[in-house]
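Hi support team,

I'm opening this ticket because the web form for multi-chain structure prediction keeps timing out on my end. I have pasted the exact lines I submitted so you can reproduce it. The total is 723 residues across two entries, so I didn't expect it to be a heavy job. Is there a limit I'm missing, or should I split the entries? Thanks in advance, R.K.
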Amino acid sequence: MDTNNQNAVKGVGDWFRWHLSKFVVAPSFLMILFFVYGFILWTGYMSFTKSKMLPIYNFEGILQYVKLWKQPTWLASFENLFVFGSLFIAVAIAFGCILAIFLDQKIRGEGALRTIYLYPMAISFIVTGTAWKWILNPGSGIEKLVQSFGFENFEFDWLVDPDYAVYTLVIAAVWQASGFVMALFLAALRGVDGEIIKAAQLDGASISRIYMVIILPTLRPVFLSSFVILTHMAIKSFDLVVALTGGGPGNASWLPANFMFEMTFRRNQIGQGAASAMIMLATVLAIIVPYLYSELREKKHG
Amino acid sequence: MSSFKRNSTLKALLLGGVVLGCASAAQAQPTAEVLHYWTSGGEAKAVKALKEDFEANGGKWVDAPVAGGGGDAQNAVLRSRVLSGDAPAAVQIKGPNIRNWAEAGALADLDAIGKEEGWDDILPPLLQDIVKFDGHYVAVPVNIHRVDWIWANPEVLAKVGADVPTTWAEFNETAEKLKAAGITPLAHGGQPWQDATIFETVVLGIGGADFFNKAFVDRDLDTLRSDTMKKVFDQMRIIRGFVDDDFSGRDWNLATAMVMNGKAGMQIMGDWAKGEFLAAGKKPGVDFVCAPTPSEGGYILNSDSFAMFDVKGDDNKSGQALLAKLILGEKFQETFNVYKGSIPARMGVAKAKFDDCAIKSMNDLEAASSKGTLVGSAAHEISTAGAVRGAIMDVVTEHFNSDMSSDDAVNKLAEAIELAL
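Hello R.K., no limit was hit. The queue was backed up. Here is the completed structure from your submission:
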């Protein structure tokens, strides 16, 4: 009897220990399932309804999507996303990579420099946006400063020019993110096998050739992960626009996230907002899924 | 054992609930939870006046401020509260949004108190339309702001020998003179709602009140595409030449400051701008002048109001009725509107405590109301719901910030409004 009982207790204890990890993970798993995926589904359903101020649950087909692609402001925000996104990602990766290579030259004060470059990442986009708004405003920032040096004809008014406002977003976002990309690259550079480089040097390869042919190709995973991180940063950019340009001049620098917020929360057009949110999700998926697919396939083969 | 324990805990909880319930029923103090976004400066002061008035009349005020100008944040809170069946008693909502909530069946019927207080006789007809749904009162107006004002610096205008313009041609002339004298003619902030504010004053000025209503209330597509509307956009293009280079994204109060310190001659803005002048110790008629924007006796009205939601419980219901009565009472209308810089929403309030601009606004309101030239603001969500207002703002601001032709602009305006419906 006793031993049986003990065995049973031991069995329960073992069972419990065996499944402990699952118990620990379960609450957060359920919460993510509900609050992330559940609400994605809900938003998806909303995008097929005529919901305005309050949710309406009658299915109406793709009406909201048809309307969405007729909205000039949506088309403009979507175009801005591609301009902003591609420039931001390309420039931030190029900058981060170059900074990392320079810092990797065993220079003095590297620790301090690294912190300085990485520090913008610790600042919120609102602060970045506000500071750059002052710097880029022709009446108070760079333009006024250079003009006060005596260059009266100097002009730098991108912030107030509807055709160029979106590029000011790139400037501020690159400033914020390139330090982070640099850190990623620096870590990877430290991991490159010194023996290979020495061998290449013995063979008489120049420094630039060593970097181009040997080192950078080994950094491919870092390129990919920075690409993915920066892509989702670009697509969810919202606060930077609010702080830096306010979406203006006019609506020239809206991004899809701003459109979604405006429709859902200011104009009582939940259906339109949901449809734009689904398009944003589809854009992210279109970029992330091929990446995940290729990564996972490689692992299987490797 | 354990089940017994649980049972007794449950009983204790239930008992506690009953006791609590009895306690609150025994008091039956009129209670009202007020959801609002008046959290800054003069507005906070104004809302405090209401709270004190309410408490002096034996009510229990539950304050629920949601910071974040414009009420976007409040809107989100309100939606979730109503959907979960826990609506606050009074919520700061304006214009057609009241109608939307009434259509959803969420608002209370205030006819009893309205009859008792004679609201039909003291409220301007246009305001009655706004706060009534299906002929029943569902909200109470708090104040009236006039949108079509020019705020001018008389010293600056005197430099070029000009007075405050009374026609748009005169406006352009004066502005050219100011420009030639190296002064920014029009202080303006490039934000969509500010562009739309100027736009609607031009619509009223060039098209008149009937045209204004046909365009924004009836949303008649031919009117929106008409030659008169093209002229409106032509004037907007001219006005674009009168603002300084750094206007993009500037807040309205910074533009007001430009008029105050003589950097600019005029600003077109609602009478909340007056608060900025007064706060800086400027005197109306001396340091600054207020005059209506050019129009044939028109008046663009903006009004804040409290929508009354359907609440449960006698204490909440009586609190709501008391609040509604106090809001439209003479005493509160006076104190509140002196703080806020607006004018009373009801007629028959003593004018003694108000400044000259406010008195002019009251007189003009009565005149416009009887002449039929009183219109509800489109830029501030009185004659238009959020979606239509947004569509107007999109086109107006795009036109103002690009070289779009007036022909394109009227077509885009009509298309955008059609899409928003």
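A quick check on our side: The radius of gyration of chain B is 24 Å. Let us know if the file doesn't open in your viewer.
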